[in-house]
């Protein structure tokens, strides 16, 4: 028996028959062509090999073109995208390191949820972007501006670090700013950039500290010593900037005494639960903090919180699952438990929710890429989501990510639904029920 099978196998093309019969089953041409040899050697593999050689890029080579990812990709729903399509472009020789597709992925993880081969775009896209940045390829100007602001000021808006705690002056309750008091606290409230500077984010920050004060939580904030967490920077490919931010924040945290960290946003949660422990271990830093998203923290205190929710809110509310709290960390219940605890509130779910939740478009650096992506999609992802909220009859779109309030409020206006849908952070709804009046 010959051992050299390459000499045994005939490589000539198997002709497609108009009709083939296999074990009594009639197969028309479109089906019997599957028995042909797949001609993989007709393609140039240089670009694909370059991607799969990157640390983190390996799994793109696992794709076998089943296409399951395309149907759940939020960008494909409003454009033409998906891991299968990216693989095909690489297979055909497109230089993806200089292609717009490099920046369209929001790292929402919905493709990985359904992929039978575990092609992981959450690792592939940051690896490709890092290579592009380090090799001098062009970066969309608005993203580059965010990088520069974060490097210089510690926040993407380019605001002065000295103003990071200015919102506290109008909070209406005492807030411990740790660099001023330096006393031990139970909870370090990591506020984040958008709740510190953006007007709508500040509304949520003020609501948060009022609720914590009413619950008797001993908390403090870092104020001017707090910097951007850097997780979205890392996913957008600026690894060096992420490492600088991580080191600065870890050193800052170490100067103060607290028992746990409560964060406003899912991206900060992902940074402190996944990225910072890895970075700390690799660089000899200590990182042993308990980290909670604020919905998890408050849901754990429902026995104390619920009796304080005295004013019924007669709203029909739908909830948008943040990708980085839901799919990335499998937390779907804590936000819903808080919403269900508010008296009078009626909840409705959108078609795309929980594991299949849609993306607001802000992840993976998308928060700073709206102008860029508008040239490659029929509408913004946030606009698509607003239309889905309208479709189920919601009066309020509830969120729990600082990226989302401003994104969805803009989308409400741009889709012509101003007056039909209100966007509120869950903490704002809790404060409204607790204290009465519209806290916005």
Helices and strands in order:
Elements: H1 5-8, E1 19-22, E2 25-28, H2 29-32, H3 46-52, H4 68-72, H5 74-78, H6 83-91, H7 110-114, H8 121-134, H9 141-153, E3 176-177, H10 178-181, E4 185-190, H11 193-197, H12 199-215, E5 219-221, H13 231-235, H14 239-254, E6 258-263, H15 266-283, E7 290-293, H16 294-299, H17 302-305, E8 316-319, H18 333-341, E9 346-348, H19 370-373, H20 381-391, E10 396-399, H21 402-414, E11 422-425, H22 426-435
Parallel strand pairs: 3-5, 4-5, 4-6, 6-7, 8-9, 8-10, 10-11
Antiparallel strand pairs: 1-2
Helix pairs in contact: 12-22, 20-21
Report what the structure shows.
With 440 residues, the chain is α/β, with parallel strands linked by helices. It has three domains: 40-134, no CATH class; 141-299, Rossmann fold (3-Layer(aba) Sandwich); 304-435, Rossmann fold, CATH 3.40.50. It is 43% helix and 10% strand. It has 22 helices and eleven strands. The protein has helices at residues 5-8, 29-32, 46-52, 68-72, 74-78, 83-91, 110-114, 121-134, 141-153, 178-181, 193-197, 199-215, 231-235, 239-254, 266-283, 294-299, 302-305, 333-341, 370-373, 381-391, 402-414, 426-435; strands at residues 19-22, 25-28, 176-177, 185-190, 219-221, 258-263, 290-293, 316-319, 346-348, 396-399, 422-425. It has a five-stranded parallel beta sheet with strand order 3-5-4-6-7. α15 (266-283) links the parallel β6 (258-263) and β7. α12 crosses α22 (426-435) and α20 (381-391) crosses α21. The chain is globular, with a radius of gyration of 25 Å. Residues 5-9 have low confidence and may be disordered.
């Amino acid at each position: 028996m010959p051992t050299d099978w390459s000499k045994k196998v005939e490589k000539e093309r198997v002709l497609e028959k108009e009709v083939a019969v296999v074990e009594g089953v009639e197969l028309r041409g479109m089906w019997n062509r599957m028995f042909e040899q797949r001609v993989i050697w007709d393609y140039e593999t240089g670009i694909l090999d370059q991607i799969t050689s990157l640390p983190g890029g390996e799994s793109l080579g696992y794709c076998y073109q089943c296409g399951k990812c395309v149907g759940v990709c939020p960008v494909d729903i409003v454009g033409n995208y998906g891991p299968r399509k990216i693989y095909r472009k690489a297979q055909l020789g497109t230089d993806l390191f200089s292609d717009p597709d490099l920046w369209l992925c929001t790292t929402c993880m919905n493709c990985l949820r359904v992929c039978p081969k575990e092609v992981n775009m959450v690792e592939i896209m940051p690896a490709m972007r890092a290579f592009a940045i380090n090799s001098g390829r062009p970066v969309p100007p608005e993203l580059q501006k965010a990088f520069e602001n974060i490097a210089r000021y510690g926040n993407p808006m380019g605001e002065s670090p000295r103003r990071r705690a200015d919102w506290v002056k109008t909070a209406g309750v005492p807030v411990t700013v740790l660099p001023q008091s330096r006393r031990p606290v139970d909870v370090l409230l990591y506020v984040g950039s958008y709740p510190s500077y953006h007007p709508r984010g500040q509304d949520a920050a003020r609501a948060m500290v009022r609720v914590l004060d009413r619950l008797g939580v001993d908390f403090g904030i870092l104020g001017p010593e707090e910097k951007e967490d850097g997780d979205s920077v890392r996913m957008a490919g600026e690894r060096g900037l992420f490492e600088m931010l991580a080191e600065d924040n870890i050193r800052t945290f170490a100067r103060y005494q607290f028992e746990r960290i409560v964060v406003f946003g899912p991206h900060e949660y992902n940074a402190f639960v996944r990225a910072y422990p890895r970075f700390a271990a690799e660089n000899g830093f200590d990182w042993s903090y308990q980290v909670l998203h604020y919905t998890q923290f408050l849901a754990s205190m429902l026995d104390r919180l619920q009796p304080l929710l005295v004013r019924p809110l007669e709203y029909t509310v739908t909830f948008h699952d943040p990708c980085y709290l839901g799919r990335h960390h499998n937390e779907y219940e804590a936000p819903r438990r808080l919403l269900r605890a508010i008296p009078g509130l009626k909840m409705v779910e959108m078609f795309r929710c929980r594991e299949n939740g849609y993306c607001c478009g802000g992840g993976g650096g998308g928060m700073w890429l709206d102008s860029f992506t508008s040239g490659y999609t029929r509408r913004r992802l946030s606009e698509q989501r607003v239309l889905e909220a309208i479709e189920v009859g919601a009066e309020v779109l509830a969120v729990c990510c600082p990226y989302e309030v401003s994104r969805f409020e803009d989308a409400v206006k741009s889709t012509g639904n101003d007056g039909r849908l209100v966007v509120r952070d869950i903490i704002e709804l809790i404060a409204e029920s607790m204290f009465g009046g519209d806290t916005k």
